[in-house]
Design a protein that fits this description.
The protein is globular. It has a five-stranded mixed barrel. The protein contains five helices and twelve strands. Helix 2 packs across helix 3 (54-60). The chain has helices at residues 2-8, 23-36, 54-60, 95-113, 118-121; strands at residues 39-43, 64-68, 72-73, 79-82, 87-91, 124-130, 134-135, 141-149, 152-155, 172-176, 182-183, 188-193.
Length: 194
């Protein structure tokens, strides 16, 4: 699904593949990507675990990390960095976290890099009626995926970030702000159309 997200922006996908958790290999492949790409997207390897080597590789190759970690669920591990001629976005490894971060944080800049006018790169926000109760722990801005239809938002039955089946037929993300823990069915909720 990640490749199709990139292709939908009009960007040309140059390379796609998996790398072993080996620092020298990651740094070498990142250096190769820097030589050919205007924008680099990676998934996984950006958190604070023992095998998350990308942050170090970015700085070793001269990148400036502007954002590392965000108060967003799903998607807390996220990196935005800048090299001399290349933008870098590190997305979380869980499939739904990757998709939500892409839609929320990367899609717009990628559309802009592809030459679209700024107005067409902004997320489409609207407010609709929730068809079911929506819950969040309120500690981070939370996005619940689902479908928007005729002025309503219906959440997907499963919001497990590691389950890509939850992405089937998604066309919207309900947005619950920090400290917002509940939206009852029948109330209005902010959504981003994807």
């Amino acid at each position: 699904p990640y490749r199709s997200l990139v292709r939908e922006t009009g960007a040309t996908l140059l390379q796609c593949g998996s790398l072993p958790d080996h620092p020298a290999t990651i740094e070498s492949e990142l250096a190769l990507a820097l030589a050919i790409a205007d924008v680099i997207l990676t998934t996984g390897g950006i958190s604070v675990g023992d095998r998350d080597f990308l942050p170090r590789a970015i700085t070793q190759l001269g990148g400036q990390i502007a954002v590392q970690g965000i108060a967003m669920k799903p998607g807390k591990p996220f990196i935005a960095a800048r090299f001399a001629n290349t933008a870098y976005y590190g997305l979380p490894g869980n499939p739904m976290s990757t998709m939500v971060c892409f839609w929320r944080l990367v899609r717009g800049p990628l559309l802009k890099a592809c030459g679209l006018p700024l107005a067409e790169c902004q997320p489409q926000h609207t407010t609709v009626i929730a068809t079911a109760d929506l819950h969040s722990n309120g500690q981070r801005e939370t996005y619940l995926w689902g479908t928007c239809h005729q002025g309503t938002f219906t959440p997907a039955p499963d919001h497990t970030s590691g389950n890509p089946i939850g992405a089937i037929a998604i066309n919207a993300l309900a947005q619950l702000r920090i400290h917002q823990t509940y939206v009852p069915a029948g109330d209005r909720v902010a959504v981003i159309l994807v």
